[in-house]
Structure formats: C-alpha cells, structure tokens
Amino acid sequence: MKKGVDVFVKGLFRENPILVLLLGLCPVLAVSTSTRDALCMGVAFSFVLLFSNIIISSLRRFTPHHIRIPVFIVVIATFVTITDYLVAGYSPQLHRNLGVFIPLIVVNCIVLGRAEAFAYKNNPFLSLADAIGMGAGFTIIIVLIAIIRELLGAGTIFGKMIMPEGYQPVIMMILPPGAFLIMAFLIALQNKLVKK
Questions:
Q1: Three-class SS of 46-57
Q2: Which helix (H) or strand (E) holds 6?
Q3: pTM of the full predicted structure?
Q4: By three-state DSSP, how is residue 15 classified?
Q5: CA count, 13 A, side-chain hemisphere, 147
Q6: Long-range contact list for 96-101, CB < 8 A, 24+ apart?
Q7: Are residues 53 and 127 in contact, defined by beta-carbon separation less than 8 angstroms?
Q8: How far apart are CA 194 and CA 187, in angstroms?
Q9: pLDDT of 22 higher than 80
C-alpha cells in the first residue's frame, strides 16, 4: 500500500508530467486558454491513461516484447476513441473547442511513456496508482495554467467575469507565449519548493 501511495504522489509533484517531465505540452499550450476546456482535457487525458495503464499492465505477461508498442497503441487508441465519442455525444461545443487534441492523446508521449516505462513492468494496482497520480498531476497543472491565462487574458474564470469593470485584458496571456511564461514561473516555483 505504501508503495502505491509513493507512486501516486510521484505523479503529482516529483515527476509531474508537465512541470518536471515536460511532456504533453501541445494540449497544455493550445487548450489552456479556457478553464472549462482545460479541465475537460485533463479529465479526458486521465480517463485514457487510467484504463490504458490497467489493461496494458494486465496484458503484460501475454504480450511479446517485440510487438508491445503496437499493442500499446491499439489499447490507447481504443480508449481515446471511446473518450472522443463520449465528448462529441454529450458536449458537441466542447468537442469543437478541444478539436484534434482528444484524438492526439493516442500519440501523447505521457500516455505512451507511462505504458512503456511503468504499466508494462508493474502490476495493475501500481499501474492504477501511477495513472491516477500522473492524470491528477496533468489535470491540476493544466487547469492552474488555464485559470491564470483566462483570468489575466479575459478577466474570467469558467466564463464568469471576475475582474472589476474596466479591466484591460492582457491579450498575450491567451496566446501561446502566455502559456510558456506561466509554465516557466510554475517550473521555477516547483524547483524552489523542491530545493527546500
């Protein structure tokens, strides 16, 4: 149980996929202009990572080493397709906002990397803990970046006006350079906390 907790915590902070591993940055830059879109992207990503890790870990003893990557891709693509259809069916507007970034989860280096580096080598329980930690770490950071970008760039959070009347939005924050700036500050903050 303690090992499972350690694996979970690792994904949240010590090996956060965005701030430490610097993986999966494409959706972080593109989708984090809106808090709602970022939260949905984080949930979709976490869903795919969770079920992919469990299935890949369960199949690891039956998967020949030389065909493991195609097996990983098929498993991940299955859950990405389910996620894509669910989002399209329940929220067509959100599906349009997220665009190509849900299908691109198939080749997201975090998902494929966790399948190769962790799920293929560990039991389903530890793979579940890893997926929950990495998914939560990804979701927390993408939502935090989106909150800052949306607040500074539009004066809103979840589409609700937060800033006082007459607020002049910082347009750069809703452009990709704004995401890079915020990520840089978050990485610096995390490095400072880790050094303490």
A1: HHHHHHHHHHHH
A2: helix 2-9
A3: 0.92
A4: coil
A5: 8
A6: 97/31, 97/34, 97/37, 98/31, 98/37, 98/40, 98/41, 98/44, 101/26, 101/27, 101/30, 101/31, 101/41
A7: yes
A8: 10
A9: yes
- Please tell me the total number of residues recorded for the chain in this structure: 196
**Residue 193 corresponds to which tokens in the numbers above?**
């906390």
Residue 7 identity (one-letter amino acid): V
Rg (C-alpha) for the chain, rounded Å, is 18
| Residue 93: other Cβ atoms inside 10 A | 8
Among 95, 3, 114, residue whose Cα is nearest residue 40: 95
Q: How far is CA 51 from CA 32, 44, 104, 155, in A?
A: 24, 11, 17, 36
Distance between CA atoms of residues 194 and 102, nearest Å: 32
Of the candidates 195, 194, 196, the residue with the CA atom closest to the CA atom of residue 12: 194
CB distance 104 to 27 below 8 Å: yes
CA nearest neighbour of 95 among 175, 160, 41: 41
Report pLDDT digits (tens) over 144-158: 999 999 999 988 898
Question: How far is the CA of 177 from the CAs of 19, 70, 94, 99, 170, in angstroms?
Answer: 16, 35, 23, 20, 12
Q: What is the pLDDT of residues 106-126, one digit of tens each?
A: 878 888 888 888 889 999 999
